[in-house]
């Protein structure tokens, strides 16, 4: 009963601000919860309907004056589904699912919940069942642009491992490895450094079963035969002879070993919440279903749970920074993930490298949808386009510093500075010494895409979209255990 009351209360609260047509659409199903007064809130064609159930033991010719053997059911206060609820619906599964949540919750959902369902819903999420990368997919990432990206990240990881005192066993964790290209290039590039590769236990944190399979192939993994059933079956990457295992959460990776974590284009896929300045103060932007059954944005009438994170984020900013903004994005999951990373490297030693596009300050309005290399509407056919948002590096720094005094945070610096200082130009020169003309062309283009400012030739979409050069829009940040000192090239 308490649950019923709470649901009813939250329904009223959630819908109090809705324009009346919408409110009436939602009020029918949920008037069921107001047990005593429901019949007044919608009209039922079956008011006080009495159903007669014939007693099968009586013959049709039985005495019409005998007592009627009927059971009366008063259905007046039962929920009567609206007509349209049975009409065939051609919406894709994810759209049906989102509309279902909004309908049965009795009100709109946050942009954060929308983003989380769209990207990682276990049945129909964008990432779950397919390969979305590259020219044939929706977008391209740095490891897919050039092998040099994974190789340079490998140089960073090896330098940190040296600073850590070359431990004999290390957990090398990658969050969201996509096709597995970065890790494959890292392992291939490092395979000559046997002491290093021998120390590695590779852990891939990936929610998509389809991408886990691709990663298995890309790393040329071999599943060891396990005749003695009592031992754990190992999977080995034949690129460098390292054991590889998969997890869906960072928390599932065994702790207790020094740890190096890589997160390339992972934070931008974490669900963000959007807030808008309104006359009544900051309101959370929510996703609702409109009269014509399409999705639309509405504003929350009262504080939402994510408001706590907005307050936290604003505390880390100056009043001047906030006063200029009419919209603010916050990413509670990024704050929580940073805390998890920091706790891990505080207790086990090591460090983390985060590379992503973003800014070193409050993000205002960056959520974007990309399908087939073009920007599309965020609410259009959810699940068929990638959703991502700029990463708030300042928020990661504050979250890390609040979580533990045992880590130091470095950067962000631009991807161009990061790769340049690690020596990507020497690497490209070396590769150019020994390749075909076609390969040389691809190496040069790849190099400029990784470090360039992004002039139009590198953009594959229409001319009015942002060019794709990744050198300054992408930033690198490191969080390391203070025992390690400042990592290269952040000194
Ligand atoms: N790092 C890769 C892929 C980036 S796309 C590259 O640069 O090419 C984001 C990746 O993170 C995908 O592999 C996606 O399936 C994974 N991912 C997104 N959200 C996730 C989550 N909540 N948990 C685990 N993996 C996630």
UniProtKB/TrEMBL annotation:
The protein's role, per its UniProt record: Arginine methyltransferase involved in the assembly or stability of mitochondrial NADH:ubiquinone oxidoreductase complex (complex I). Acts by mediating symmetric dimethylation of 'Arg-118' of NDUFS2 after it assembles into the complex I, stabilizing the early intermediate complex.
GO CC, any one term: mitochondrion
Full protein name: Protein arginine methyltransferase NDUFAF7
Annotated GO MF terms: protein-arginine omega-N symmetric methyltransferase activity
Catalyzed chemical reaction(s): L-arginyl-[protein] + 2 S-adenosyl-L-methionine = N(omega),N(omega)'-dimethyl-L-arginyl-[protein] + 2 S-adenosyl-L-homocysteine + 2 H(+)
Residue spans crossing the bilayer: none
EC number: 2.1.1.320
Keyword Transferase: yes
Matching InterPro entries: NDUFAF7, NDUFAF7_sf, SAM-dependent_MTases_sf
Entry keyword set: Methyltransferase, Mitochondrion, Transferase, Transit peptide
Family in the record: Belongs to the NDUFAF7 family.
Compositionally biased tracts (Low complexity): 59-77
PANTHER family with a match to the protein in the record: PROTEIN ARGININE METHYLTRANSFERASE NDUFAF7, MITOCHONDRIAL
EC class (word): transferase
GO terms (BP aspect): methylation; mitochondrial respiratory chain complex I assembly
Sequence segments annotated as region (Disordered): 53-93
Compartment list: Mitochondrion
